[in-house]
Amino acid sequence: MDYEIKTQGKFSYLEEGEGEPLVLLHGLFGALSNFSGVVEYFRQYNKVVIPLLPLYDLNILETSVGGLAKHVHKFIEARGYKNVHLLGNSLGGHVALVYLLKHPDAPVKSLILTGSSGLFENGMGETYPKRGDYEYIRKKAELTFYDPKIATKELVDEMFEIVNNRLKVIKIITLAKSAIRHNLGDELKEIQQPTLLIWGKNDTVTPPMVAEEFQKLIPNSELEFIDKCGHAPMMEVPDEFNKILHAFLEKLKQ
């Protein structure tokens, strides 16, 4: 995916297409490439935006789900977006929820969560991260997907580079701990936006029961499961993911 990264002040972001903004928030090991299928498809219908979340750039006190949510708030404000469709995967979903709970008047028209943390997630395990153990990182990457082949060498190399950078590891552990501490169970009833949950039936990081719990707790929400799919449906089965999302966004226009 070869798009121009734009900057405005301290914000770096991708922005393609025209129409109501579809803002995509990536997860802890997320990269722009995770959303290439979504960008390619939806830039025909929407202004597709991916802010680069400053996972490693916040000071240690701000390195939290709340700190990232504050960044998203300031970014959406700085860009002046209206009628935003906010989509978050994994930690990105958690950030989207915290942002909406802190800013109930945010210019957000709908919320889309896929494999979101915020209620429960299986982390990288107690032994994570093993620096220098490529095989361990490869197995962890493969567990993210139903089809281990999605964890390409390029993807594993990216993760391996991150866990071998001491400062990045400290930030990742800090963010992961913040996500676990910041459980949103009691607050989700306050989410007002129509919400779509797209979940892999074979997600082992945030299993299907997590999706069902989200649906129970978020008032105006609907849940779509995708079979033979893991923690990142937009990467693993982009066509099916896009079809479900498109139908949801079309329904909101009626």
Regions with pLDDT < 50 over 5+ consecutive residues?
Answer: none
Spell out the CATH superfamily: Alpha/Beta hydrolase fold, catalytic domain
Query: Which class of secondary structure composition applies to the elements?
Result: alpha/beta
CATH architecture: 3-Layer(aba) Sandwich
The radius of gyration is: 17 Å
Shape: globular
- CATH C-level class: Alpha Beta
Individual helix count: 9
Number of domains: 1
| Terminal CA distance | 32 Å
Quote the CATH topology.
Answer: Rossmann fold
Order of helices and strands: EEEHEHEHEHHHEHEHH
Oligomer: single chain
Largest β sheet strand count, sense and barrel closure: 8 strands, mixed
Q: Looking across the biggest beta sheet, what order are the strands in?
A: 1-2-4-3-5-6-7-8
Approximate strand percentage: 15-25%
Could you give the topology of this structure?
Blueprint: E1 6-8, E2 11-16, E3 21-25, H1 36-42, E4 47-51, H2 65-79, E5 84-89, H3 91-102, E6 108-114, H4 134-143, H5 153-163, H6 166-181, E7 195-200, H7 208-217, E8 221-226, H8 233-236, H9 238-253
Parallel strand pairs: 3-4, 3-5, 5-6, 6-7, 7-8
Antiparallel strand pairs: 1-2, 2-4
